[in-house]
Amino acid sequence: MTHDLVTALRPLLTAEASAEAYAAGTEPGDLEQAVWLRLLERLDADRPPVDPEEWLRRAVRSEARRSRRTSRLERPYALEPADDGGGDPEELALAAARGRALRAAVRRLPGRCPRLMEALLSPEDLTYREIAGELGISQGSLGPERSRCLGCLRRLLTPEVAAR
Questions:
Q1: Which residues contact 29 (CB under 8 A, 6 or more apart)?
Q2: What is residue 60's predicted lDDT score, i.e. its pLDDT?
Q3: From residue 46, how far is each of 2, 35, 49, 50 by CA, in Å?
Q4: Residue among 112, 149, 148, 105 nearest 132 (CA)
Q5: pLDDT of 14
Q6: 3 pLDDT exceeds 80?
Q7: What gap in Å lies between CA 3 and CA 132, rounded to an integer?
Q8: Which of 49, 61, 94, 157 has a Cα at 20 to 30 A from 75?
Q9: Contact yes or no for 32/9 (Cβ under 8 A)
Q10: Phi and psi at residue 47, in whole multiples of 5°?
């Protein structure tokens, strides 16, 4: 049933999306995808539309209006993002030195803090659930523990930062 409906509506959707896309400031493929998603959600929650062609036309226009509203609210960045991915050798050396100093301070933290901070600084970008499982603590106590560890780290680093 769904396959037949999709096959029957595909040419109409392509034409309708192409007709509405330019005025909506979007790509026809994006409109098509949004309408297919709406149709699948409808089929999952309800039954097929009584008049599929009319439903499709209304859905395309509705998605085009939504796209226009969204594009009016979006504002471009004044400048491109500053990160060019590179950096001169001096900046790279200073960043590496800061990273080494941070990791050395983390190792001097008390209790579970070194393991917690290493997990938070991990390049693997672990989730709270993964970190809690690794440390053997509840996920709910991870936030307060992290706050205590960051406070300790701040106190450890304050003299070093002030000395410079």
A1: 17
A2: 93
A3: 13, 16, 9, 11
A4: 112
A5: 92
A6: no
A7: 45
A8: 61
A9: no
A10: -125, 170
Mean pLDDT of the chain: 85
Residue with structure tokens 């595909």?
10
DSSP codes joined into one string, the chain: -HHHHHHHHHHHHHHHHHHHHHHHTS-HHHHHHHHHHHHHHHHHHS---SSHHHHHHHHHHHHHHHHHHHHHH----SS--S--S---HHHHHHHHHHHHHHHHHHHTS-TTHHHHHHHHH-TT---HHHHHHHHTS-GGGHHHHHHHHHHHHHHHHHHHHHH-
Tell me what the mean pLDDT of segment 115-144 comes to.
Answer: 88
**Rounded Cα gap, residues 17 and 26, in angstroms:** 10
Query: Could you give the CA distance from residue 87 to residue 109 in angstroms, rounded to a whole number?
Result: 31
What pLDDT score was predicted for residue 42? 85
Structure token digits, residue 67: 């796209």
